[in-house]
Amino acid sequence: MARDGRPLQLFRNLNAKIAAIPMIFTAVVIFAGGTIWTVVYSFTDSKLLPRLRWVGLDQYDRLWNTSRWIISIENLMIYGVFSLVFSLVIGFVLAALLDQKIRFENTFRTIFLYPFALSFIVTGLVWQWILNPDFGVQSVIRDLGWESFTFDPLYTADIVIYGILIAGLWQGTGLIMCLMLAGLRGIDEDVWKAARVDGIPIWKTYLFIIIPMMRPVFITTLVLIASGIVRVYDLVVAQTSGGPGIASEVPAKYVYDKMFLGQNLAQGFAGSTMMLLTVLIVLIPWAYLEFGGKRRV
Amino acid sequence: MRLRSTLAALAAFVTLPAAGAQATELEVTHWWTSGGEAAAVAEFAKAFDATGNKWVDGAIAGSGGTARPIMISRITGGDPMGATQFNHGRQAEELVEAGLMQDLTELAEKEGWRDIVHPVSLLDSCTVDGRIYCVPVNIHSWQWIWLSHKAFEDAGVPVPTNWDEFVAAAPALKEAGKIPLAMGNQPWQSSGAFNVMSIALAGLDAWKAVNIEKDAEAAAGPEYAKVFKAAADAREFRKDSNVQDWNQATNLVITGQAGGQIMGDWAQGEFQVAGQVAGEDYSCLPGLGVTEVISTGGDAFYFPKLDDPEKTQAQMELASLMLSKEVQVAFNLKKGSLPVRGDVDLAAANDCMKKGLEILAGGNILPDTNQTLSPDTQGQIEDLMTEFWSSDAISAEDAQQRYAEIIANAD
Amino acid sequence: MSNPGSLNIAAASLDAVKDRIDGGPRGPRPRKRISRRNIFIYGTLLVVAIYYLVPLYVMLVTSLKGMPEIRLGNIFSPPVEITFQPWVKAWAEACTGLNCDGLSRGFWNSVRITIPSVVLSIAVASVNGYALANWRFRGADVFFTILIFGAFIPYQVMLYPIVIILREMGLYGSLWGLVLVHTIFGMPILTLLFRNYFTSLPEELFKAARVDGAGFWSIYFRIMLPMSLPIFVVAMILQVTGIWNDFLFGVIYTKPDTYPMTVQLNNIVNSVQGVKEYNVNMAATLLTGVVPLVIYFISGKLFVRGIAAGAVKG
């Protein structure tokens, strides 16, 4: 084996290419192929089974005239922005606190991380139970004597999405915290020493020196959080089933319901195409910065 | 799997050549998981096992909405089950057109289904291009309101005998700390209740114009305006029923926490499991006590095409069995639904079922919305109704306008 | 092949990597034991810890109560009379349709689904990551970008195309079909992690092995693999939790005989017969979560170490 020294340039990476076949297959056939297939069929009137009978933009027309879709998009925006901000802030603050040479670091870390081991279905059920006005937090506080206390996000249309957010953050911030902690540990001690010598306050050190140094960690966490946001489905189904009314609907649920319950595949495909479009708008600039700009130099 | 069942079938064939029974495992998927439903489905399984075959139960919990996607994926994915439940109507239409379902015409002709199934319109929904593809097993009608005697006693008002009296009694119920109208949050419950109200309050002609002819003008007309007005009032009554599932809402009625519930006759099974007696503990009013008709929706079983001739044989046996007299009686008594044949004796039926049977015998029947509207249109109506019933933000007028638009585009 | 030179380098770099990761907290050193700062830190951590622990506590307490007690008491009070009946019921007696054998049926199915899926998906993703990090070929970035894009595609969207692909491959409804699906959907994140990890290993190692004439697979098995324990632990934990907790694929790509535990959990929780039995639901929920939870508690520290290695370098 040690014999074959330097293979021909053409076959240089042959093994690597063979090894990458599963990845290429997945990327091209499943992800790209499936996506194109979905987009193509969104211009048809497919019902239960896919068929190629073109109807132009009818499905999109109907989509954007459906109040349930509009509400779904609004919910996704609210959930997305808050989820992103809170995950990053809470994750970073917790990581920074754990990074202070404290006692019981392992215990705290495990406590923050364990919800990630539970599925969204479980998370949704538990929080549904805790936020249930007849049994949960509201009734407990009322029993303590504060009769007028009202906290029933899951049954109030205006704030139901925040009830889902509470559960989503509970499940997800632990992992973000772990990533941030890992990032903090990767920063050289000398940076801190230098900052202290220069008399820079701690919060400034974090904000202007440490965070910019943790760029790769932030990118990984962003991918994780953002992909979780677009996909949010199980949690809503388990917690509220989209209710009260249609106040906590999300796009993924709309797509699923139209495809399989309404037996209108094309309408579901139109919804998913819009979701994918949103992802692309966010992702392409990032991919360009990540791969296009840096590596090709 | 297949080898094992073939062997089992072979063994049965060897030991019981005279009976001709072939023990074949048949997986049957359905979404009957509540107390009364599970008891009813057990009757099918018992009868099927008695023929020497084996019923493999494939229950999927969480209503048809969860179960149907799974069933459809499996059939289109080329891994079909032996038999599967669908609501009677258009849900399986395209699967049949794609040639994925077993043709039952021969069996139906041999056994004369056209003569025994009553009303015969049930069989029409199973028919595509003159061929029969499914077995109707029961008739479920939506047009009922279930009233808790205890709740009305506690509130000190008599049990109403029609919708108007119910509306009049609602404030008293509220004062007594009851929920006047129990309704779960699942979308099909709100659209179902609306449909029941429209048959009762808008009248048959208007209902038919909208749901069968898909006449958008009728949907925007004055009859339907009355319905939307009444529904807007009714949504006040349903506040505080913070439950999801229909049978949890029924449970509120059973325990007297709620005055009534608009729900199909499957609710009957829950009262029965709870040991309640019709006429004493609870009342039922067909057509909300206003227009006494029932819709003949229900469940039907479809049999996907399978490669294995043994299984096909077992499918035919199951299809035939589901329509047999004994099984029809046993199943429907547990399920609280009406049998699909007019020639069976339901002496054991309770008051509510008897009312239903009478209306059925009198021919006051309507098709179910599952038969007249496509799942897509129904889904749009469900979305609208869910929004409407849960939020005061939409006025009756706005809702009616959007409803008319959906009907205009219905297929 | 024996290359003492490269192996020594490997060992040395491994130590270097470990040093970096195990280096301990790097934040500013605290000055006093009890200070305002410490009170603030521990106070905040404690409050947050309570928020994280409350649901687990509620689940546990509820699962040990009888139904009458649940209806009367509040959800935070400890059980007056401890009963294990809900646990027994959830495990062995709860009904879905005609099957009254609780979660027990699904447990072994889940094991049978999880093990091959985890092994295959990690094997594939680690080789991918290795090829992307060390054997870059033309077009690799394009494929990788598409793969990452795949991480954002909602699963529901892909259900139908995958039904068709599996049907054409003849794998629909089989265990291997499900394993393949899990491998496909685990690939984006896992490949990203492995690629980042292998990129973070010192390049000299790889170059030395190449000079010694080692090929693609021998470098992978003899050098990369022995150095990658932390990232394999991370991948394993992510996959075990992901696959164990999966509901959607489990219910669509299997049949009742082989339903995983989560499907049974859903069936139990949604099969309301009369009143919702919250205690049984909670016990079932906890039982379903036990496997991933145990893995977390055992491997907590390794997990963080691995995450550090896989995510920090990009």
Walkthrough of the structure:
The complex is a heterotrimer of chains A (297), B (411) and C (314). Chain A has 297 residues and is mostly helical. Chain A has helices at residues 14-19, 21-41, 58-64, 67-98, 105-113, 120-130, 137-143, 160-185, 189-197, 202-213, 215-231, 234-239, 251-261, 265-295. The longest helix of chain A has 32 residues, at 67-98. Chain A is flat and about 70 Å long. Residues 1-8 and 293-297 of chain A have low confidence and may be disordered. Chain B is of the alpha/beta class. In chain B, 52% of the residues lie in helices and 12% in strands. Chain B has helices at 2-15, 35-50, 63-76, 93-97, 105-111, 113-116, 121-124, 149-155, 163-175, 187-202, 204-211, 216-220, 222-237, 246-254, 267-273, 309-323, 325-335, 351-361, 369-372, 375-390, 396-408; strands spanning 25-30, 54-59, 83-87, 127-128, 131-132, 134-136, 144-148, 179-181, 258-262, 282-286, 294-295, 299-302, 365-366. In chain B, the strands form four sheets. A five-stranded mixed β-sheet of chain B has the order 2-1-3-12-6, with helices on both faces. Chain B has a four-stranded mixed β-sheet with strand order 8-9-7-10. Chain B is globular, with a radius of gyration of 22 Å. With 314 residues, chain C is mainly α. Chain C folds into two domains: 4-26 and 85-311, MetI-like fold; 31-83, no CATH class. Chain C has helices spanning 4-21, 36-63, 67-72, 85-93, 104-134, 140-150, 155-169, 175-200, 203-211, 216-227, 229-245, 248-252, 261-270, 278-311. The interface between A and B is medium-sized, with 28 and 29 residues. Chain B: One of its GO terms (cellular component) is periplasmic space. Chain B: Its main location: periplasm. Chain B: Residues 1-23 form the signal peptide.
